[in-house]
Design brief:
The chain contains four helices and no strands. It is mainly α. Helix 2 crosses helix 3. About 7% of the residues have low confidence.
Length: 116
């Protein structure tokens, strides 16, 4: 019985520790993303209206943008993220990123394009 109580205590401490580590990792990733967005926008990460969309228009525009890809789920995820930050989605299904400088210049840690 005592061994079972010790095991449960160790398990609870382990779960709590894992939860704290995951929380800290999310904070770090969010801070890195915010810093990168600040560099792209050039105005402290404010949603400075690079584009003329309202964030409520993003789902419709991203559905259009991602309609011809095989990878719809990831395309929509990243398109929505980029649209909400940049308030712009390029025309067409591919390319035309020059129309949205924020959308075009937001890169991954490896330097690849973040926005589809």
């Amino acid at each position: 019985m005592v061994a079972m109580a010790k095991l449960l205590l160790v398990l609870a401490v382990t779960i709590l520790t894992i939860s704290m580590v995951e929380s800290k990792l999310k904070e770090t990733n969010n801070a890195e993303e915010q810093h990168q967005l600040e560099r792209v926008n050039g105005q402290g990460g404010q949603k400075n209206g690079q584009g003329s969309l309202q964030s409520s228009q993003c789902p419709e525009q991203c559905l259009r943008r991602c309609s011809q890809t095989r990878y719809k789920k990831s395309c929509l995820f990243f398109c929505l993220k980029c649209c909400r930050a940049c308030l712009c989605v390029p025309s067409g299904y591919y390319g035309n990123k020059g129309e949205c400088p924020c959308y075009n210049n937001w890169k991954t840690k490896r330097g690849g394009p973040r926005c589809p």
